Amino acid sequence: MLGLCLLLCFASCHLEDVKKGSMDEPQAKISVIRFDQMLNEYVESNSFSSLSRMRTECPQETRILLEDIIGLGEVDDERIYERMKTFFSDTVILSLMRDASVKFKDMHGLERQFTEGFHRLKEEVPSIVVPCVYAQFSALNESVVVVDSLLGFSIDKYLGADYPLYRRYYYEYQRRSMTPERILPDCFTFYLMSLYPFPREGERALLDVILHMGKIHYAVSEVLGYKSACDELGYTAEEAAWCQKNEKRVWAFMLGHKHLSATDPMVVRKYCKASPYTAFFGEDSPAMVGVWIGMQVVASYMEHHEEVTLEELLESVDYRRLLAESEYRP
């Protein structure tokens, strides 16, 4: 399931040229910037060397955290770092930070996966700018942050569905996406969404939404090597079986009720948003069935158009033509 994301449009500061972790060279390796460790060392040990590193090595990450994520004030305020230390010294947040630091002490596995994923994405979309990747604490705010060529993920949002604190603040369907396994697909999904945003012109009919989201998730599935659309969306085996069994019924329902042309936000939300299930199809159905259907249409289109590259697919916004040429027949 999708995590939360903060998409900010700041002027380019050419981070890829000045920080380790950006990767435009074919064999470069992504190293996750441990902004989380700098913050933890400052809060736990009152380490002014760590604070100095935050301010000099990670000024943009610091500004995003303080101004946009936790909203403590302007980064230039002379007392902002005192307020930051007080905020993160709260006993609940401090315990969360400690647990996250232990859980994600070693990032080597994630760094390898990020590197492999962005290598494949760069091969498919040569024009793409590979971002600097960093880890942070957000005090259970944003899961993923995308700013220009900077991509951050909050390790305190991925401690596992059964993490005790999550049970106090999140529903079961929300906790399902708060696992370490969802970091990679969330990051790639939201980074691609920032590069290929939904067209601003015109109304957003359900067809446009499910095919736009469908192509993004299809690309992520291809780049990260998922075996199926259900795996990429984080469905259980039972939910995947439901999709396979009911694909024809879902499509017939969408056509019969003229939902593909619907612009009612409530209709679109029921098909595409994270929830316990998709309301139109009962409690046995998984959430985001509309996105799954969109992925099936896109997959059918790509099967019938082998000459179309992934980059061309991502750039395409003529979703009615895509549907017509997909020959989708569940």
What does this entry look like structurally?
The chain is α/β, with parallel strands linked by helices. The chain has 2 domains: 5-195, no CATH class; 206-326, no CATH class. The chain has 17 helices and 5 strands. The protein has helices spanning 15-18, 35-45, 48-57, 59-69, 80-88, 91-103, 108-124, 164-169, 172-175, 183-195, 206-224, 229-233, 237-256, 265-272, 289-304, 310-315, 319-326, and strands at residues 5-8, 33-34, 132-136, 144-147, 150-154. Strand 4 and strand 5 form a beta hairpin. The longest helix has 20 residues, at 237-256. The protein starts with a strand and ends with a helix. The model is unreliable at 9-23 (pLDDT under 50).
List the helices and strands and how they pair.
Blueprint: E1 5-8, H1 15-18, E2 33-34, H2 35-45, H3 48-57, H4 59-69, H5 80-88, H6 91-103, H7 108-124, E3 132-136, E4 144-147, E5 150-154, H8 164-169, H9 172-175, H10 183-195, H11 206-224, H12 229-233, H13 237-256, H14 265-272, H15 289-304, H16 310-315, H17 319-326
Helix pairs in contact: 2-3, 2-6, 10-11, 11-15, 11-17, 15-17
